[in-house]
Amino acid sequence: MYSQARQLGIKIKSADDIEAMRVAGHQAGSVLNMIREHVQPGVTTGELDRLCHEYIVDELQGVPAPLNYGGGPGRMPFPKSICTSVNHVVCHGIPGERVLKDGDIVNIDVTVIQAGWHGDTSKMFIVGEPSVKAQRVVDVAHEGMKIGIGQVRPGVTLGDIGYAIQRYVESQRCSVVREYCGHGIGQVFHEPPQVLHYGRPGEGVVLEPGMTFTIEPMVNVGKPGTRLLNDGWTVLTRDRSLSAQWEHTMAVTDDGVDVLTQLPGDDL
Ligand code: MF3
Ligand code: CO
Ligand code: CO
């Protein structure tokens, strides 16, 4: 009998594959550590992109996966090397001339390809002093991601993960974005399965050792709805409320989870 994973096109990774993904994952995490000191009032998102691009290419000798990714009929490929999503931008913000100012919250999403393997991780950065609301949505999204990661072990379902995240986020009077989700990852940037950040216990794919995927909940202060800008990429909250997101890449182990984008000594 074929495993459920195979039927769904989910590629089970070997121990060697996972070590290769950890290299890419640690590199992606190191980019977030590098950029932290540069996220200051007055910097443009384009400058943050430039610094990350140069670090990935020159220091890490890796490839920034977003650059030129995802073109197709009626959509330009992503034009920059990282995503920078400020305030009410939910995800896939395009770096450019925008100047960060005191009180902004910005998600920086980094995906590095190293030796053919992907590592995908993002964090929220707070510019200067945040409002109470901004700090709250950053913290709720972070805790939601950690709760999701805490569910991961063989036998648990993707529905269990989504349910745990949704229940927590909604208990904090925030909402979970539905239109975008986590994803399988490996030699392909986005592969099966889709990892929803909402759901019902016991539903969906049953986790097996060797599965690799991201958990990356997007949490809004207001309603969950989103709107796509005409650039084909930038996703906003429909009600213009603040949004936050955190992301890690992980592998299912024999008895739990191995977070491949977490550097030794770093917090999740
Ligand atoms: N890194 C994003 C994710 O978490 C995807 C960005 S695709 C891009 O899946 F083209 F917008 F960069
Ligand atoms: Co991702
Ligand atoms: Co990402």
Question: What features would you describe in this structure?
Answer:
28% of the residues lie in helices and 24% in strands. It contains five helices and 15 strands. It has helices spanning 4-7, 15-35, 45-59, 132-151, 158-171; strands at 63-64, 83-86, 89-91, 105-114, 117-126, 175-176, 182-184, 191-195, 212-215, 218-220, 226-228, 235-237, 243-245, 248-252, 257-259. Strands 1, 2, 4 and 5 form a four-stranded antiparallel β-sheet that branches. A hairpin with a 6-residue loop joins strand 7 (182-184) and strand 8 (191-195). Helix 2 packs across helix 3. The model has no long low-confidence stretch (mean pLDDT 98). The structure holds 2-amino-4-trifluoromethylsulfanyl-butyric acid and cobalt (II) ion (2 copies). The site of one cobalt (II) ion has 5 residues, from strand 4 and strand 5.
Helix content percent band: 25-40%
Can you tell me the residue ranges where pLDDT is under 50 for at least 5 consecutive residues?
none
* SSE ordering: HHHEEEEEHHEEEEEEEEEE
Tell me what portion of residues adopts beta-strand conformation: 15-25%
Number of separate strands: 15
Proper CATH architecture: Alpha-Beta Complex
The CATH homology group name: Creatinase/methionine aminopeptidase superfamily
Biggest pleated sheet: 4 strands, antiparallel
Task: Note the topology.
Elements: H1 4-7, H2 15-35, H3 45-59, E1 63-64, E2 83-86, E3 89-91, E4 105-114, E5 117-126, H4 132-151, H5 158-171, E6 175-176, E7 182-184, E8 191-195, E9 212-215, E10 218-220, E11 226-228, E12 235-237, E13 243-245, E14 248-252, E15 257-259
Helix pairs in contact: 2-3, 4-5
This protein binds 2-amino-4-trifluoromethylsulfanyl-butyric acid (MF3) and cobalt (II) ion (CO) (2 copies).
